[in-house]
Amino acid sequence: MKSISGKTAIVGIGEVPTGHFPDRSFIKAAVDVCEMAITDAGIPKQDIDTVIPIGVVSNPLDNTNVICSWLVEELGLGKTAKSNFQVMSGGSSSANSLKVASALVAAGLSKAVLVVHCDRMGTGLDLSAAISMFSKASINQEYEMPYGFSQLALAGFLQQRYMYETGTTERQIASVVESLRKWAALNPNAMLRKPKTADEILQSKMISSPVRKKMMNILADGAAAFIVTSSEYARDLTDTPAYVLGIGSRCTSFTVTAQPHFDCWQPAVDGAYHMAGIGPGDIDVAEIYDAFPTFILISMELLGLCEKGKAGKFVEDGNTSPGGRLPVSTNGAMMAQGHTGAGGGMAILVEAARQIMGKAGERQVQNANIAIETASGGIGMDFHVGVLGKEGQ
Amino acid sequence: MSEYNKPLPLVTELSKHFYDGCKQGELLYQKCDDCGQIVFYPKELCPACMGRRLSWRKSNGKGKIYTFTVTYDAAPPEFATDVPYALALIDVDEGFRMMSNIVECDFDKLRCEMPVEVVFDQITPDIALPKFRPSEPDEQ
Ligand SMILES: [Zn+2]
Protein backbone atom coordinates (compact mmCIF):
# COMPACT_ATOMS: atom_id res chain seq x y z
CA MET A 1 0.00 0.00 0.00
CA LYS A 2 1.30 3.43 -0.93
CA SER A 3 2.00 5.28 2.26
CA ILE A 4 0.73 8.76 2.97
CA SER A 5 3.20 9.10 5.82
CA GLY A 6 4.29 12.70 6.34
CA LYS A 7 2.26 14.01 3.42
CA THR A 8 -0.51 15.63 5.46
CA ALA A 9 -0.62 17.62 8.67
CA ILE A 10 -2.93 19.02 11.28
CA VAL A 11 -2.45 22.79 11.13
CA GLY A 12 -5.06 24.16 13.50
CA ILE A 13 -7.06 23.00 16.51
CA GLY A 14 -9.93 24.36 18.57
CA GLU A 15 -11.58 23.25 21.79
CA VAL A 16 -14.02 24.66 24.34
CA PRO A 17 -14.17 23.57 27.98
CA THR A 18 -15.77 20.17 28.60
CA GLY A 19 -18.38 19.94 31.36
CA HIS A 20 -21.97 20.83 32.14
CA PHE A 21 -22.94 23.97 30.25
CA PRO A 22 -26.73 24.09 30.04
CA ASP A 23 -26.67 27.64 28.67
CA ARG A 24 -24.11 26.98 25.92
CA SER A 25 -26.01 26.21 22.73
CA PHE A 26 -24.95 23.47 20.37
CA ILE A 27 -24.29 25.87 17.53
CA LYS A 28 -22.29 28.33 19.63
CA ALA A 29 -19.88 25.64 20.81
CA ALA A 30 -19.61 24.17 17.32
CA VAL A 31 -18.92 27.50 15.61
CA ASP A 32 -16.52 28.59 18.35
CA VAL A 33 -14.22 25.57 17.89
CA CYS A 34 -14.27 25.96 14.12
CA GLU A 35 -13.30 29.61 14.39
CA MET A 36 -10.52 28.74 16.86
CA ALA A 37 -9.12 26.08 14.53
CA ILE A 38 -9.22 28.43 11.52
CA THR A 39 -7.53 31.22 13.50
CA ASP A 40 -5.00 28.78 14.98
CA ALA A 41 -4.04 27.57 11.48
CA GLY A 42 -4.00 31.07 10.03
CA ILE A 43 -5.71 29.58 6.99
CA PRO A 44 -7.89 31.68 4.67
CA LYS A 45 -11.29 30.14 5.31
CA GLN A 46 -12.04 29.81 1.59
CA ASP A 47 -9.33 27.15 1.43
CA ILE A 48 -11.44 24.89 3.62
CA ASP A 49 -13.36 22.99 0.97
CA THR A 50 -14.53 20.01 3.02
CA VAL A 51 -16.33 19.90 6.36
CA ILE A 52 -16.69 16.63 8.28
CA PRO A 53 -19.09 17.03 11.22
CA ILE A 54 -18.79 13.98 13.49
CA GLY A 55 -22.05 12.43 14.68
CA VAL A 56 -24.10 14.05 17.42
CA VAL A 57 -25.57 11.54 19.88
CA SER A 58 -27.58 13.67 22.31
CA ASN A 59 -29.89 15.29 19.80
CA PRO A 60 -30.84 13.66 16.46
CA LEU A 61 -32.04 17.00 15.08
CA ASP A 62 -28.65 18.65 15.64
CA ASN A 63 -27.10 15.65 13.91
CA THR A 64 -29.39 15.89 10.89
CA ASN A 65 -28.67 19.59 10.63
CA VAL A 66 -24.88 19.26 10.70
CA ILE A 67 -25.15 16.57 8.04
CA CYS A 68 -27.14 19.09 6.00
CA SER A 69 -24.37 21.72 5.98
CA TRP A 70 -25.44 23.80 8.99
CA LEU A 71 -21.79 24.65 9.73
CA VAL A 72 -20.99 25.46 6.12
CA GLU A 73 -23.63 28.17 6.28
CA GLU A 74 -22.70 29.43 9.75
CA LEU A 75 -19.03 29.76 8.75
CA GLY A 76 -19.83 31.38 5.42
CA LEU A 77 -18.17 28.64 3.36
CA GLY A 78 -21.09 28.40 0.92
CA LYS A 79 -19.21 29.84 -2.05
CA THR A 80 -16.14 27.63 -1.70
CA ALA A 81 -17.02 24.34 -0.01
CA LYS A 82 -17.13 21.20 -2.12
CA SER A 83 -18.32 18.65 0.42
CA ASN A 84 -19.99 18.37 3.80
CA PHE A 85 -20.51 14.82 5.01
CA GLN A 86 -20.42 12.75 8.14
CA VAL A 87 -17.95 10.21 9.42
CA MET A 88 -19.49 8.29 12.31
CA SER A 89 -18.01 5.34 14.13
CA GLY A 90 -18.75 6.30 17.73
CA GLY A 91 -15.64 7.00 19.78
CA SER A 92 -13.36 6.25 16.87
CA SER A 93 -14.94 8.87 14.61
CA SER A 94 -11.93 11.11 15.30
CA ALA A 95 -9.47 8.53 13.99
CA ASN A 96 -11.61 7.66 10.99
CA SER A 97 -12.05 11.36 10.18
CA LEU A 98 -8.30 11.94 10.32
CA LYS A 99 -7.85 9.02 7.96
CA VAL A 100 -10.52 10.23 5.52
CA ALA A 101 -9.30 13.84 5.67
CA SER A 102 -5.69 12.82 5.06
CA ALA A 103 -6.69 10.59 2.16
CA LEU A 104 -8.75 13.36 0.52
CA VAL A 105 -5.86 15.80 0.83
CA ALA A 106 -3.22 13.31 -0.30
CA ALA A 107 -5.34 12.39 -3.32
CA GLY A 108 -5.66 16.04 -4.31
CA LEU A 109 -9.43 15.98 -3.86
CA SER A 110 -9.36 18.51 -1.05
CA LYS A 111 -7.16 21.44 -0.15
CA ALA A 112 -8.11 21.59 3.52
CA VAL A 113 -10.57 19.58 5.59
CA LEU A 114 -12.25 20.85 8.75
CA VAL A 115 -13.25 18.07 11.15
CA VAL A 116 -15.57 19.19 13.92
CA HIS A 117 -17.32 17.54 16.82
CA CYS A 118 -19.88 19.06 19.15
CA ASP A 119 -22.26 17.30 21.52
CA ARG A 120 -24.18 17.92 24.72
CA MET A 121 -24.00 14.54 26.47
CA GLY A 122 -23.92 16.23 29.88
CA THR A 123 -26.96 18.49 29.71
CA GLY A 124 -28.64 17.70 26.38
CA LEU A 125 -29.73 14.25 27.50
CA ASP A 126 -31.18 13.35 30.92
CA LEU A 127 -29.31 10.78 32.97
CA SER A 128 -31.85 7.99 32.72
CA ALA A 129 -32.00 8.43 28.95
CA ALA A 130 -28.19 8.28 28.86
CA ILE A 131 -28.03 5.10 30.98
CA SER A 132 -30.72 3.57 28.84
CA MET A 133 -28.85 4.50 25.66
CA PHE A 134 -25.57 2.96 26.82
CA SER A 135 -27.43 -0.23 27.75
CA LYS A 136 -28.74 -0.54 24.19
CA ALA A 137 -26.27 1.11 21.83
CA SER A 138 -24.07 -1.47 20.12
CA ILE A 139 -25.57 -4.32 22.14
CA ASN A 140 -26.99 -7.36 20.41
CA GLN A 141 -30.75 -7.40 20.77
CA GLU A 142 -31.24 -11.08 20.02
CA TYR A 143 -28.78 -12.71 22.41
CA GLU A 144 -27.28 -10.09 24.78
CA MET A 145 -29.73 -7.36 25.70
CA PRO A 146 -32.08 -9.78 27.56
CA TYR A 147 -29.35 -10.34 30.18
CA GLY A 148 -28.95 -6.75 31.35
CA PHE A 149 -25.67 -6.04 29.60
CA SER A 150 -24.41 -2.46 29.32
CA GLN A 151 -21.25 -0.61 28.38
CA LEU A 152 -20.42 -0.46 32.10
CA ALA A 153 -20.65 -4.23 32.30
CA LEU A 154 -18.24 -4.36 29.38
CA ALA A 155 -15.74 -2.45 31.49
CA GLY A 156 -16.26 -5.04 34.23
CA PHE A 157 -15.63 -7.88 31.77
CA LEU A 158 -12.42 -6.32 30.48
CA GLN A 159 -11.03 -5.47 33.89
CA GLN A 160 -11.86 -8.88 35.37
CA ARG A 161 -10.17 -10.81 32.59
CA TYR A 162 -7.20 -8.45 32.45
CA MET A 163 -6.61 -8.78 36.20
CA TYR A 164 -6.96 -12.57 35.96
CA GLU A 165 -4.42 -12.84 33.14
CA THR A 166 -1.85 -10.35 34.37
CA GLY A 167 -2.17 -10.23 38.15
CA THR A 168 -2.67 -6.47 37.93
CA THR A 169 -4.13 -5.16 41.18
CA GLU A 170 -7.19 -3.00 41.71
CA ARG A 171 -4.92 -0.37 43.19
CA GLN A 172 -2.77 -0.28 40.07
CA ILE A 173 -5.91 0.18 38.00
CA ALA A 174 -7.09 2.96 40.30
CA SER A 175 -3.72 4.63 39.86
CA VAL A 176 -4.58 5.16 36.17
CA VAL A 177 -7.38 7.47 37.28
CA GLU A 178 -5.04 9.16 39.76
CA SER A 179 -2.62 9.90 36.93
CA LEU A 180 -5.40 11.24 34.69
CA ARG A 181 -6.69 13.52 37.45
CA LYS A 182 -3.20 14.98 37.87
CA TRP A 183 -3.14 15.87 34.20
CA ALA A 184 -6.69 17.26 34.30
CA ALA A 185 -5.65 19.56 37.14
CA LEU A 186 -3.36 21.24 34.58
CA ASN A 187 -6.02 21.38 31.86
CA PRO A 188 -8.39 24.36 31.94
CA ASN A 189 -10.74 22.55 29.51
CA ALA A 190 -11.11 19.44 31.68
CA MET A 191 -14.19 18.74 33.76
CA LEU A 192 -12.83 16.89 36.82
CA ARG A 193 -9.81 18.90 37.88
CA LYS A 194 -9.66 17.90 41.52
CA PRO A 195 -6.89 15.38 42.22
CA LYS A 196 -7.95 11.98 43.56
CA THR A 197 -5.62 9.38 45.01
CA ALA A 198 -5.81 5.72 44.10
CA ASP A 199 -6.96 4.99 47.65
CA GLU A 200 -9.86 7.43 47.33
CA ILE A 201 -10.83 5.83 44.04
CA LEU A 202 -10.76 2.37 45.66
CA GLN A 203 -13.12 3.59 48.38
CA SER A 204 -15.80 4.54 45.86
CA LYS A 205 -18.83 2.35 45.38
CA MET A 206 -18.66 -0.89 43.37
CA ILE A 207 -20.75 -0.43 40.22
CA SER A 208 -20.07 -3.38 37.93
CA SER A 209 -17.35 -5.45 39.57
CA PRO A 210 -14.47 -4.88 39.64
CA VAL A 211 -15.23 -1.40 38.25
CA ARG A 212 -15.96 1.26 40.88
CA LYS A 213 -17.76 4.54 40.56
CA LYS A 214 -14.65 6.70 40.28
CA MET A 215 -13.23 4.44 37.58
CA MET A 216 -16.02 5.47 35.24
CA ASN A 217 -15.95 8.16 32.60
CA ILE A 218 -18.43 10.97 33.03
CA LEU A 219 -20.84 12.32 30.41
CA ALA A 220 -20.23 15.93 29.43
CA ASP A 221 -20.86 18.68 26.91
CA GLY A 222 -17.91 19.43 24.66
CA ALA A 223 -16.65 20.46 21.26
CA ALA A 224 -13.39 20.31 19.36
CA ALA A 225 -12.13 20.79 15.81
CA PHE A 226 -9.02 20.28 13.71
CA ILE A 227 -7.92 21.15 10.19
CA VAL A 228 -5.94 18.84 7.90
CA THR A 229 -4.06 19.97 4.83
CA SER A 230 -1.04 18.92 2.76
CA SER A 231 2.40 19.06 4.35
CA GLU A 232 3.49 21.42 1.61
CA TYR A 233 0.74 23.91 2.37
CA ALA A 234 1.12 23.34 6.11
CA ARG A 235 4.66 24.72 6.00
CA ASP A 236 3.39 27.94 4.38
CA LEU A 237 0.76 28.36 7.07
CA THR A 238 2.51 27.57 10.31
CA ASP A 239 5.83 26.81 11.97
CA THR A 240 4.22 24.11 14.07
CA PRO A 241 2.31 21.59 11.96
CA ALA A 242 1.57 18.18 13.46
CA TYR A 243 2.43 15.84 10.61
CA VAL A 244 0.42 12.66 10.18
CA LEU A 245 3.15 10.01 10.14
CA GLY A 246 1.22 6.81 10.59
CA ILE A 247 -2.31 5.47 10.74
CA GLY A 248 -3.32 1.91 11.63
CA SER A 249 -6.76 0.44 12.06
CA ARG A 250 -8.55 -2.78 12.90
CA CYS A 251 -12.29 -3.31 13.05
CA THR A 252 -13.25 -6.64 14.63
CA SER A 253 -16.85 -7.09 15.67
CA PHE A 254 -20.20 -5.74 16.75
CA THR A 255 -20.50 -7.84 19.89
CA VAL A 256 -17.95 -8.21 22.66
CA THR A 257 -18.68 -11.93 22.44
CA ALA A 258 -17.03 -12.05 19.03
CA GLN A 259 -13.78 -10.39 20.13
CA PRO A 260 -11.31 -13.21 20.50
CA HIS A 261 -8.80 -11.53 22.80
CA PHE A 262 -7.22 -8.15 23.55
CA ASP A 263 -4.57 -9.00 20.95
CA CYS A 264 -7.17 -8.77 18.18
CA TRP A 265 -6.34 -5.06 17.93
CA GLN A 266 -2.57 -5.57 17.52
CA PRO A 267 -2.62 -5.12 13.71
CA ALA A 268 -3.75 -1.50 14.16
CA VAL A 269 -0.65 -0.82 16.23
CA ASP A 270 1.69 -2.63 13.85
CA GLY A 271 0.20 -0.81 10.87
CA ALA A 272 0.69 2.63 12.41
CA TYR A 273 4.29 1.95 13.45
CA HIS A 274 5.07 0.47 10.05
CA MET A 275 3.68 3.45 8.15
CA ALA A 276 5.47 5.91 10.43
CA GLY A 277 8.71 3.93 10.31
CA ILE A 278 9.10 4.07 14.07
CA GLY A 279 8.74 1.84 17.13
CA PRO A 280 7.52 2.17 20.69
CA GLY A 281 10.88 3.55 21.86
CA ASP A 282 10.37 6.65 19.72
CA ILE A 283 7.19 7.77 21.48
CA ASP A 284 7.48 10.94 23.58
CA VAL A 285 3.84 11.24 24.62
CA ALA A 286 0.88 8.84 24.36
CA GLU A 287 -2.69 10.06 24.17
CA ILE A 288 -4.73 6.95 24.81
CA TYR A 289 -8.46 6.57 24.41
CA ASP A 290 -9.91 5.39 27.64
CA ALA A 291 -13.56 5.25 28.73
CA PHE A 292 -12.26 2.95 31.51
CA PRO A 293 -8.82 2.56 33.12
CA THR A 294 -8.22 -1.02 32.02
CA PHE A 295 -8.52 0.03 28.40
CA ILE A 296 -5.57 2.38 28.90
CA LEU A 297 -3.44 -0.42 30.37
CA ILE A 298 -4.36 -2.88 27.62
CA SER A 299 -3.61 -0.22 25.00
CA MET A 300 -0.24 0.69 26.52
CA GLU A 301 0.77 -2.95 26.26
CA LEU A 302 -0.54 -3.32 22.69
CA LEU A 303 1.44 -0.20 21.78
CA GLY A 304 4.57 -1.83 23.19
CA LEU A 305 5.02 0.99 25.72
CA CYS A 306 5.13 -1.62 28.50
CA GLU A 307 5.67 -5.34 28.61
CA LYS A 308 2.50 -7.44 28.67
CA GLY A 309 0.97 -7.34 32.13
CA LYS A 310 3.33 -4.64 33.41
CA ALA A 311 1.38 -1.48 32.55
CA GLY A 312 -0.38 -1.29 35.92
CA LYS A 313 2.87 -1.26 37.84
CA PHE A 314 4.32 1.28 35.38
CA VAL A 315 1.41 3.64 36.01
CA GLU A 316 1.41 3.05 39.78
CA ASP A 317 5.08 4.01 39.85
CA GLY A 318 4.19 7.44 38.45
CA ASN A 319 5.70 7.04 34.98
CA THR A 320 2.61 8.30 33.16
CA SER A 321 1.85 11.30 35.43
CA PRO A 322 3.10 14.88 34.99
CA GLY A 323 6.90 14.81 35.15
CA GLY A 324 6.93 11.05 34.49
CA ARG A 325 9.01 9.16 31.97
CA LEU A 326 6.14 8.57 29.54
CA PRO A 327 3.26 11.05 29.84
CA VAL A 328 -0.06 9.32 29.04
CA SER A 329 -3.35 11.05 28.18
CA THR A 330 -2.21 14.52 29.12
CA ASN A 331 -5.66 16.11 28.82
CA GLY A 332 -7.05 13.78 31.50
CA ALA A 333 -8.90 11.67 28.90
CA MET A 334 -12.58 10.85 29.21
CA MET A 335 -12.29 9.84 32.87
CA ALA A 336 -11.26 13.38 33.84
CA GLN A 337 -11.76 15.61 30.80
CA GLY A 338 -15.28 14.17 30.32
CA HIS A 339 -17.04 11.85 27.87
CA THR A 340 -18.67 13.80 25.07
CA GLY A 341 -20.12 10.92 23.06
CA ALA A 342 -18.40 10.39 19.72
CA GLY A 343 -16.09 13.25 20.72
CA GLY A 344 -14.10 11.31 23.32
CA GLY A 345 -11.56 10.36 20.69
CA MET A 346 -11.63 13.86 19.25
CA ALA A 347 -10.32 15.41 22.49
CA ILE A 348 -7.54 12.82 22.62
CA LEU A 349 -6.54 13.46 18.99
CA VAL A 350 -6.61 17.24 19.43
CA GLU A 351 -4.45 16.89 22.55
CA ALA A 352 -1.90 14.82 20.61
CA ALA A 353 -1.72 17.55 17.96
CA ARG A 354 -1.51 20.22 20.68
CA GLN A 355 1.49 18.51 22.27
CA ILE A 356 3.30 18.24 18.92
CA MET A 357 2.48 21.88 18.14
CA GLY A 358 3.92 22.87 21.54
CA LYS A 359 0.66 24.53 22.57
CA ALA A 360 -0.19 22.49 25.67
CA GLY A 361 0.64 25.22 28.19
CA GLU A 362 1.28 23.99 31.72
CA ARG A 363 1.06 20.37 30.68
CA GLN A 364 3.38 20.67 27.68
CA VAL A 365 5.69 17.64 27.46
CA GLN A 366 9.25 18.77 26.80
CA ASN A 367 10.77 17.56 23.52
CA ALA A 368 7.49 16.11 22.33
CA ASN A 369 8.61 15.18 18.83
CA ILE A 370 6.44 12.12 18.33
CA ALA A 371 3.00 11.49 19.79
CA ILE A 372 0.85 8.40 19.49
CA GLU A 373 -2.92 8.51 19.86
CA THR A 374 -5.61 5.85 19.91
CA ALA A 375 -9.36 5.62 19.59
CA SER A 376 -12.02 2.96 19.77
CA GLY A 377 -15.73 2.83 19.03
CA GLY A 378 -18.75 0.75 20.02
CA ILE A 379 -18.04 -2.03 22.47
CA GLY A 380 -14.43 -2.27 21.38
CA MET A 381 -15.59 -2.78 17.82
CA ASP A 382 -12.42 -1.23 16.50
CA PHE A 383 -9.06 0.18 17.45
CA HIS A 384 -7.18 2.95 15.70
CA VAL A 385 -3.68 4.26 16.16
CA GLY A 386 -2.31 7.51 14.84
CA VAL A 387 1.27 8.78 14.95
CA LEU A 388 1.86 12.53 14.77
CA GLY A 389 5.24 14.19 14.60
CA LYS A 390 7.12 17.44 14.14
CA GLU A 391 8.96 16.32 11.01
CA GLY A 392 7.03 15.59 7.81
CA GLN A 393 7.82 15.20 4.13
CA MET B 1 -45.94 -16.18 36.37
CA SER B 2 -45.81 -12.43 37.07
CA GLU B 3 -45.53 -10.04 34.16
CA TYR B 4 -42.06 -9.95 32.63
CA ASN B 5 -40.84 -6.37 32.09
CA LYS B 6 -37.28 -6.78 30.89
CA PRO B 7 -36.18 -6.67 27.24
CA LEU B 8 -37.13 -9.83 25.38
CA PRO B 9 -34.93 -11.23 22.66
CA LEU B 10 -35.61 -9.80 19.22
CA VAL B 11 -37.17 -12.75 17.40
CA THR B 12 -35.96 -13.24 13.85
CA GLU B 13 -36.00 -16.30 11.63
CA LEU B 14 -32.66 -17.39 13.09
CA SER B 15 -33.17 -16.41 16.70
CA LYS B 16 -36.61 -18.07 16.69
CA HIS B 17 -34.93 -21.36 15.80
CA PHE B 18 -32.43 -20.84 18.61
CA TYR B 19 -35.10 -19.98 21.19
CA ASP B 20 -37.37 -22.80 20.02
CA GLY B 21 -34.42 -25.02 20.91
CA CYS B 22 -34.12 -23.41 24.34
CA LYS B 23 -37.82 -24.10 24.97
CA GLN B 24 -37.05 -27.78 24.34
CA GLY B 25 -34.08 -27.61 26.73
CA GLU B 26 -31.51 -27.58 23.93
CA LEU B 27 -28.69 -25.05 23.42
CA LEU B 28 -28.23 -24.85 19.66
CA TYR B 29 -25.36 -23.54 17.59
CA GLN B 30 -24.42 -23.67 13.92
CA LYS B 31 -21.64 -25.42 12.06
CA CYS B 32 -20.65 -24.72 8.46
CA ASP B 33 -21.09 -27.81 6.28
CA ASP B 34 -18.55 -26.43 3.80
CA CYS B 35 -15.60 -25.46 5.97
CA GLY B 36 -16.43 -26.80 9.42
CA GLN B 37 -16.46 -23.40 11.13
CA ILE B 38 -18.41 -23.24 14.39
CA VAL B 39 -20.77 -20.27 14.08
CA PHE B 40 -22.28 -18.32 16.97
CA TYR B 41 -24.33 -16.09 17.36
CA PRO B 42 -26.50 -17.67 14.67
CA LYS B 43 -25.84 -16.18 11.25
CA GLU B 44 -27.06 -16.33 7.67
CA LEU B 45 -23.59 -16.68 6.18
CA CYS B 46 -20.55 -18.56 7.42
CA PRO B 47 -18.18 -15.75 8.43
CA ALA B 48 -15.19 -17.93 7.49
CA CYS B 49 -16.08 -19.04 3.94
CA MET B 50 -19.27 -17.10 3.17
CA GLY B 51 -21.07 -20.41 2.64
CA ARG B 52 -24.79 -20.65 3.33
CA ARG B 53 -24.93 -24.29 4.37
CA LEU B 54 -25.05 -23.82 8.11
CA SER B 55 -26.51 -26.71 10.01
CA TRP B 56 -27.75 -26.66 13.59
CA ARG B 57 -26.07 -28.74 16.30
CA LYS B 58 -26.89 -29.33 19.93
CA SER B 59 -24.38 -28.24 22.57
CA ASN B 60 -23.77 -30.29 25.70
CA GLY B 61 -24.45 -27.04 27.57
CA LYS B 62 -21.18 -27.05 29.46
CA GLY B 63 -18.42 -24.50 29.43
CA LYS B 64 -16.15 -22.19 31.38
CA ILE B 65 -16.41 -18.56 32.39
CA TYR B 66 -14.09 -16.44 30.21
CA THR B 67 -14.89 -13.30 32.17
CA PHE B 68 -17.68 -11.94 34.36
CA THR B 69 -18.98 -8.91 36.21
CA VAL B 70 -21.50 -8.39 38.99
CA THR B 71 -23.63 -5.31 38.47
CA TYR B 72 -24.50 -3.45 41.68
CA ASP B 73 -25.58 -0.07 40.32
CA ALA B 74 -26.30 1.89 37.12
CA ALA B 75 -27.95 -1.16 35.56
CA PRO B 76 -30.14 -0.74 32.50
CA PRO B 77 -33.43 0.69 33.89
CA GLU B 78 -35.40 -2.54 33.40
CA PHE B 79 -32.83 -4.43 35.51
CA ALA B 80 -32.53 -1.87 38.30
CA THR B 81 -34.48 -3.98 40.80
CA ASP B 82 -32.47 -7.12 39.99
CA VAL B 83 -29.13 -5.88 41.34
CA PRO B 84 -26.82 -7.46 42.16
CA TYR B 85 -26.78 -9.80 39.18
CA ALA B 86 -23.93 -11.56 37.41
CA LEU B 87 -23.13 -11.37 33.72
CA ALA B 88 -20.54 -13.55 32.06
CA LEU B 89 -18.99 -14.49 28.77
CA ILE B 90 -18.94 -18.27 28.63
CA ASP B 91 -16.66 -20.39 26.46
CA VAL B 92 -18.90 -23.32 25.63
CA ASP B 93 -17.25 -26.73 25.11
CA GLU B 94 -18.08 -26.99 21.40
CA GLY B 95 -15.98 -23.90 20.68
CA PHE B 96 -18.17 -20.84 20.83
CA ARG B 97 -18.58 -17.98 23.27
CA MET B 98 -21.87 -16.55 24.52
CA MET B 99 -23.13 -13.96 26.98
CA SER B 100 -25.43 -14.95 29.79
CA ASN B 101 -26.22 -14.58 33.47
CA ILE B 102 -24.68 -16.79 36.12
CA VAL B 103 -27.36 -18.01 38.54
CA GLU B 104 -27.66 -20.32 41.57
CA CYS B 105 -24.29 -19.15 42.78
CA ASP B 106 -22.50 -17.24 45.52
CA PHE B 107 -21.16 -14.25 43.57
CA ASP B 108 -18.10 -14.05 45.81
CA LYS B 109 -17.00 -17.43 44.46
CA LEU B 110 -17.13 -16.47 40.79
CA ARG B 111 -13.84 -16.68 38.97
CA CYS B 112 -12.49 -16.82 35.41
CA GLU B 113 -12.28 -20.37 33.99
CA MET B 114 -14.89 -21.63 36.45
CA PRO B 115 -16.86 -24.59 34.98
CA VAL B 116 -20.53 -23.85 34.38
CA GLU B 117 -23.55 -25.56 32.82
CA VAL B 118 -26.66 -24.28 31.11
CA VAL B 119 -30.08 -24.02 32.77
CA PHE B 120 -33.14 -22.67 30.98
CA ASP B 121 -35.19 -19.89 32.54
CA GLN B 122 -38.72 -19.85 31.11
CA ILE B 123 -39.29 -16.08 31.30
CA THR B 124 -42.47 -16.01 29.18
CA PRO B 125 -44.61 -18.78 27.68
CA ASP B 126 -42.62 -18.38 24.44
CA ILE B 127 -39.09 -17.63 25.62
CA ALA B 128 -36.69 -19.68 27.70
CA LEU B 129 -33.41 -17.81 28.27
CA PRO B 130 -30.30 -19.95 28.57
CA LYS B 131 -28.48 -19.11 31.80
CA PHE B 132 -25.57 -20.82 33.50
CA ARG B 133 -24.78 -22.13 36.96
CA PRO B 134 -21.59 -23.54 38.45
CA SER B 135 -21.29 -27.19 37.46
CA GLU B 136 -19.09 -28.29 40.34
CA PRO B 137 -21.29 -28.74 43.43
CA ASP B 138 -18.89 -27.14 45.93
CA GLU B 139 -18.98 -23.91 43.93
CA GLN B 140 -22.77 -23.47 44.01
ZN1 LIG C 1 -17.74 -21.95 6.17
From TrEMBL, chain A:
GO molecular function: acetyl-CoA C-acyltransferase activity
Listed SUPFAM superfamilies: Thiolase-like (SSF53901)
Pfam families named in the record: Thiolase_C_1
Protein name (record): Acetyl-CoA acetyltransferase
Record flagged with keyword Ribosomal protein: no
Coiled-coil parts of chain: none
Record keywords: Transferase
Residue ranges constituting the Thiolase C-terminal domain according to the UniProt record: 260-390
The keyword Transferase is annotated on this UniProt entry: yes
InterPro entries hit by this protein: Thiolase, Thiolase-like, Thiolase_C_2
Gene3D superfamilies the record matches: 3.40.47.10
From TrEMBL, chain B:
Gene3D superfamilies: 6.10.30.10
UniProt domain ChsH2 C-terminal OB-fold: residue ranges: 56-121
InterPro entries: ChsH2_C, ChsH2_Znr, NA-bd_OB-fold, Thioester_dehydratase-like
Domain of life: Bacteria
ChsH2 rubredoxin-like zinc ribbon domain boundaries: 20-52
Protein name: DNA-binding protein
Source organism of the structure: Desulfosalsimonas propionicica
